[in-house]
Amino acid sequence: MSKLIDLRMGLFLAALFIVTVLVPIASTLDQGSALSIPSYLIPLMGKYLCYAILAVALDLCWGYAGILSLGHGAFFALGGYAIGMHLMREIGARGVYANPDLPDFMVFLGWNELPWFWYGFDWFPFAAVMALLVPGALAFVFGWFAFRSRVSGVYLSIITQALTFALLLAFFRNEMGFGGNNGLTDFRDVLGFSLSAPSTRIALFVLTAIALAACLLIAKAITVSKAGKVLVAVRDAESRTRFMGYRVENYSVFVFTVSAMMAGLAGALYVPQVGIINPGEFAPANSIEIVVWVALGGRGTLVGAAIGALVVVAVESWLTANFPDLWLFALGALFIIVVLWMPNGLLGLVEKLRLRRKPAPDPNTETPA
Amino acid sequence: MSAQLFLDGVHRSFDGFKAINNLTLSVDKGELRAVIGPNGAGKTTMMDIITGKTRPDGGEVLWNMSTDLTRMDEASVANLGIGRKFQKPTVFETHTVEDNIRLALKAPRGVFATLFHRTGKAEEARVTALLDQIRLTHLRAEDAANLSHGQKQWLEIGMLLAQEPDLLLVDEPAAGMTDAETMETAELLKSIAGQRTVIVVEHDMDFVRALDCRVTVLHQGSVLAEGSLDHVSARDDVIEVYLGR
Q1: CATH code of the domain in which B77 resides
Q2: Domain containing B99: what range?
Q3: What is the ipTM of this complex?
Q4: Are A242 and B109 inside 8 Å of each other by CB?
Q5: Which of residues 212 through 231 in chain A touch B, CB cutoff 8 A?
Q6: Residues of A in contact with B116 (CB under 8 A)
Q7: A245 Cβ under 8 Å from any chain B Cβ
Q8: How far apart are the C-alpha atoms of A315 and A321, rounded to whole Å?
Q9: Residue-wise pLDDT tens for chain B (245 aa)?
Q10: B159–A225 C-beta distance less than 8 A
């Protein structure tokens, strides 16, 4: 158990728990009170937590197994689309065209019946399973071909980038049946609860916090297991691992699939909170930004990845609100700073400062991988 | 005794260069065999072919006279009981010394087997015994990256032993070792032979002499001579190959 919840994990989970308890309380306070949080901020914070889940997902496969995916945004978007499709079905006859059988965009395109791949999405559990299964299946098939052919390193990064770009182009097309350029939006309810009601927003926020904690613990459990050690072994000396009898491709496919499913979960929680999913989520730049989060927080630390995501998106929100032109420069500068001076990210920096203060380091402290 | 490993007429060329040319070699169960030869004689390619890294263009590699290794990948060959040590010591640098051994221990290699693996007492005892044997007990909690070159060589040999292979392929184990370490390594390999088959590729003649075993001389991808070290080193063609370059 102590292997699962070390100091860093414990502190982070405690902080997450406190925030998860305090935010709903603060949001129900009288609007005049100094501590009250306006209701519109809650989905924003929920969105940040979704990004943190996404960062943990990428750190699991990049930080530990050395698989630098530049296409994790695709798995996130697919999870989002799966839930988005369900939310579209829940609108029912309340759309602009008041068509009880078809979403607005299909009526607009002049379609007469629901495409087969929309079947089942009326039912929430089906959509929820699909939000995990579709990204997982795509990652499994993609990984199976890529890792069996021993594609790795920069080549793998490039084809994952191509994957998300191909999906971006495909989802832009109206004929695909996912709302084309506009994507899916105008959602009303989830499971009968209005998405604009403060209580629904709080519930989604709390759910996202729980999901983040669960993903962190699952990822941690994988990395401290013997399988996790094999993954690090693959990262550091792939052929040694093969000659030892481990099937490297199976380990890579496994971790890539688990990671993609986590990304799908993040997307599924993201869409009801932001109220829209469109092909823009497949943009290659989004996937690259995830890499910046993980690099900034600290590769191979899990908690660091989550912190990195929270820090970067918080800075992004602040900058785009106050100095909209500066954000991309700031992002580029952050990336350069991390590469040049913080190879182990924020957590690595904290660790370094801690060791400098303590001249004789405790031999039992785990050094960051 | 029956041949544990039998290479029969193996060929392999790279861009027209015949790295392995009609190589036929037989190694008995429990034997200690040294393979020597000048640079480019095909020693490493031979190892690559046996361990499934490189597919030969022709010929057979038979394990226990029944299984053809040429159709298998590295993991399958390793799981048959063939362990390999690289020329450059290759250990998992960010893992501790004991975790390096733990990963190598003979155990199911599947994803789910390792995911739900629990370390048992017998396993810990085995790790401790192996660490004693390679004299790294005092460094067991150290990251492998912090070991010296010679210690890494020993750790890799320990990892090989942990796999409990029937055949050990050892590529230049003495490289970068002090004279004392070289002799200790020779003693260790001699003590392993008998229970396991050991093939050592080596340049260092003092080391080969210390192994005191049958020697195969490779030249241009095939066997030039075979016999005791004194026997082969007295032959004119061997002297010419070694000194004529």
Answers
A1: 3.40.50.300
A2: 3-243
A3: 0.89
A4: no
A5: 222, 225-227, 229-230
A6: 225
A7: yes
A8: 10
A9: 578 999 999 999 998 888 999 999 999 999 999 999 888 888 889 999 999 999 999 999 999 988 999 999 999 999 999 999 988 889 999 999 999 999 999 999 999 999 999 888 999 999 999 999 888 999 999 999 999 888 898 899 999 999 999 999 999 888 878 888 888 889 989 988 888 999 999 888 889 999 999 999 999 999 999 999 889 888 888 888 876 54
A10: no
pLDDT, tens only, A129-166:
999 999 999 999 999 999 999 998 899 999 999 999 99
Unique residue bearing structure tokens 């229970």: B195
Chain A residues within 8 A of B114 when measuring between CB atoms: 225-227, 229-230
* Element housing A25 (H / E): helix A7-28
If phi over 0 gives left and psi between -120 and 50 gives alpha, with beta otherwise, what is residue A60? alpha
The answer to whether A248 faces chain B, any CB pair under 8 Å, is yes
Which residues of chain B are within 8 Å of residue A222 when distances are taken between CB atoms? 115
Place of tokens 């990256």: B145
Backbone dihedral angles phi then psi of residue B133, each to the nearest 5 degrees: -60, -40
Q: What one-character DSSP code corresponds to residue A39?
A: T
Burial A186-196 (b: 16+ CB within 10 A, else e): bbbbbeeeebe
Between CA A17 and CA A182 the distance in angstroms is: 36
**Structural tokens at position A103:** 């979403």
**Which residue of chain A has the CA closest to B113?**
A227
- Cβ neighbors of B194 (< 8 A, separation 6 or more) are B30
The answer to whether residue B218 neighbours chain A at the CB level (below 8 Å) is no
| Burial class of residue A34, CB neighbours in 10 A (0-12, 13-18, 19+) | exposed
Cβ contact B78–A227 (<8 Å) = no
Sketch the domain layout of chain A as residue ranges.
7-357
Of B103, B109, B141, the CB nearest to A229: B103
Domain A7-357 has CATH 1.20.120: no
Closest CA to B89 of B179, B169, B171: B171
Asked if the Cβ–Cβ distance from A248 to B84 is below 8 Å, we say no
Contacts of residues A19-25 at CB distance under 8 Å and 24 or more positions apart, as own/partner, are: A19/A209, A20/A205, A20/A206, A20/A209, A20/A210, A23/A202, A23/A205, A24/A202, A24/A205, A24/A206
Nearest to A92 by CA among A107, A79, A82, A77: A107
Q: How many domains does chain B have?
A: 1
Tell me the count of A-B CB pairs closer than 8 A. Answer: 77
Which residue is associated with the tokens 């080193």?
A: B233
- Say if residues A274 and A263 touch (Cβ distance below 8 Å): no
The dihedrals phi and psi of A216, each to the nearest 5 degrees, come to -60, -45
A240 touches chain B (CB under 8 A): yes
Interface test with A, best of B47, B50, B90, B103 (most A CBs within 10 A): B103
Q: Do A244 and B99 touch (CB under 8 A)?
A: no
